[in-house]
Amino acid sequence: MKKILSLAGVLLILLASASLAMGHPHPDPNADAHLIVSAAVGATAGDGPVIKGMFVLGDDDPEEEGTQIMPLPGEGNEKSYKTFYKYAIVSDPNGIADIAAVYQKLNDENGNRVIRESLCTDITGNPEEWNAVLDEAWKASLISDDELAEYKYGLNDAKKQLKIFKAENSLSNCNPAGVYEAYFKAVDSYGLFYEDRTYFEYLPLKAIGLDFSSINYGAVGVNLEKWISGDENWATPEKPTIKNQGNVPLQVSVQGFPMRGENLKQRLTADSLSVELLGQFVYGLAEPVTMEGFLQPCTPTQISFGIKVPLGTAADNYSGDITIDIVGEHDDDHDHDDDDHVHA
Q1: Does one domain contain both 164 and 190?
Q2: Are 327 and 272 in contact (CB under 8 A)?
Q3: Which residues on neighbouring strands pair with residue 342, listed in sequence order?
Q4: Could you give the CA distance from residue 137 to residue 106 in angstroms, rounded to a whole number?
Q5: pTM attached to this predicted model
Q6: Which one of 146, 178, 203 terminates a domain?
Q7: CA distance 103 to 88
Q8: Which domain holds residue 214?
């Protein structure tokens, strides 16, 4: 919290009777009174505006104190944006008409600017909106009973003691998890200003997306290895691509299941299947295999799949499934769509 003040001139008004100024001890009671008036007119010295309260609405974890905002997972090759709202309640010792503007910006926990400084919207003239906002903040335990009563009293049009300002912000699934700083600056008509800040947590999200739903090995020779190579182009599903749609690095595990022949019903075990991701090759997928590399947020990554049909396998059309799971579903990060089933 920081208050910055400037010093200006003081309005002076001096009054004196003409007769006293002229040194007459007994002025004529019938004479007209002559007043000498002088003034030094300038900006008023004194305190600037004060930010009485701040909070961020959009809480996705009511069990935790404060505001926690959960990202939306990316969709396809596009970012997803989570919108939330920040509020500041401001007073001024010279009256609320002296409050000229309130500015806001958003920084991450390393002090990097995420949203540049911009004007907030004054919603004081919309009591239906600010009443709902204050009630929501109170229900979320962001303001106390006393603060709720104080703010509603001061914002009442008959009292005119407070103003409330609103800012709309958005973060994408590519913004990292962490504690974000919501900064406000209230400015009055004389240039005096007051800075303050509040904080919220942008939660970690684990999510993956695939640009393919099946793997078609086509014609495969017995005892010959064949690969379906991936790429980083989301528009080519025949070349598999996997993407971390969350905001924290993650690992995946891959498991294959037996493939069954369409006509003869012979089983082809998942030991015949293989996978490559981030340079790691794994042969045999009958058990879940954790891939060592970490998928980075918002980064399309190629993933490739192989097959080697053992000797003695009958000619037929075989089909089965492969699952790709996010590793660490029991940790503190939140998973979304942590199971992808691919038909092979």
Answers
A1: yes
A2: no
A3: 322
A4: 20
A5: 0.81
A6: 203
A7: 10
A8: 207-343
